[in-house]
Amino acid sequence: MIGIVMTTVLSFLLFLALSIIVYVKNRMRRKKIMKTTVEVLIFGIIVMFFVVYAFMPTITVPNMLILNVIVAVLFVPLVYGGAKVPVQYQTMHRSLSGIVILGVAVAVIGVFIYSILALEDSYESISKSEEEEARPLNEENTPISVAPESARNKVQKAMSVVPNTQFYDLGKLQAQQIDGEIAYVAPVEFSSFWRYLRGKETEGYFTITATNINAQPEFVQSKMRYTNSSFFNHNVQRVVYGKHPNYIQSGDAQIEVDDEGKPWYVQTIYKPLLFSNRPDMNDIKVAIVDPVSGEIETYDSSDAPEFVEGSVSSELAAIENEYFGKYVNGWLNSIFGKKDVKIPNESGTESSVTPIFNEAGEMFYFTDMASPKENIDSALGYTLINARTGALTYYNGQQNQGIMDSKGAVQIVNKQYPEKNWTGTMPVLYNVDGHPTWIVNVLDPNGLFKQYAYIKAADSDFAVFGDTAKQTLNAYRLQIAQDPSSVEGSQGVDLTEKSGTINRVLVTSTDSRQSVQFLLEGETTIYTVNTSKAPLAIFLKEGDQVDIQARIRENGTATVEEMQIQGIN
């Protein structure tokens, strides 16, 4: 409430200045002017209190300028009319009130110009670094989540377990780690103002595992009075605004659950740069609201309690991506020269970004960057933004150049099953054995998960579909090994000399290549050799003795670089 009162009072500074000028210049009517000014001021403060209460404008220089202009335009004429003060038309620079108005106009223009120039300062405030490529993905730790659309669909079907379910809708899904498992958490929210008046408090929240496509949602009963959908002083945004009226709130508050299962509303807030509303990425904080008592604690984003995964909201991460890509060489360059400009794609699941987790359980926001040139569907690289610190890492190595972007990957999936109307969603770029690979969820029209798609980012014709992440990953790696053009697929794996007896043989032929797969006695490793490297391999048979040099991977596959067949070579 203090924040609302403070904002209301600050919005009347210009009104008071102009009213004082009217009072000073009209000696014969001062008593009437004083009385009218006080009456208008009281009336205006009451009106603006409710306006500020409803819209919660942040106390920043641009916002206060605009509010003061609006208040002056609305209420100063009431002082003139109520006190019957004659209006004298003079040249603006010869009138004290005109000089004040002129000064305010110049200030508004100045703030607008500074707001444009501040784009570069906001870019510079981003904590950023560059790396050539991400670490390779391994099947023991595949941070592939179920698409939120699919998870939401399942939770919606389970809403009937909520007491008085007619009062509620499902709130925003938030990815986080609970008891070592990645899960989606979604609060139950009021469906309308009247439902809020009747219900007073919500019933709890849902959780559903984000890494198991067969998982079912679980409802956790936990009464919450302070929520996003509550009204008046029980609204989370209003609680945060009351304590931090000079901080801008980024997106809606999201729910996160601590180790004891208690839900908290987490709201990202940031301090704008002086004289603008542009974010200062060095001053990101997170306000944590107790949904039962309404108590609020504020932390630097990186110092938030450990259970908070997303101190930095997806909305702020999207802004960070935009500034990082567009304003690398200033605002003018983003419009005209566009040197080094990169445009973030909008294929993400939350505000054009996609939350993912690494093997250490840390959450990042993924976004691929494309060229500003039209009709170019190749990616320039991709960014990962740490969801607790806001630190941005840009991956733009040679292997990431010339690859298709996320929109291209989604289009490949969409064209795969036109008769079923299945669509691709949540495209994420991973490094699989040295190959940039798009991993896409395939959903039916009802939002139900159907398949995973692994698409070679450098070859739109190279796509593998499967029912599980691990199955599809293994099939994809096997096809990579069989592809003679994929010499880089074994980078980082040393050559190993082996000798043994052939146990099983399989010859695979396509229009473009022919390869031989075999097993050695006493092993389960699948060896693959391309006939372009060893033409005589086509004559392999069970019982042959071979000497090979191969790159053996941990997933049970190997690529043969050289082969000697006893009795033939």
UniProtKB/TrEMBL annotation:
Keywords on record: DNA-binding, Membrane, Transmembrane, Transmembrane helix
Transmembrane segments: 6-24, 36-56, 62-83, 95-117
Molecular function GO terms recorded: DNA binding
Protein name, entry field: DNA-binding protein
Source species of the chain: Halobacillus litoralis
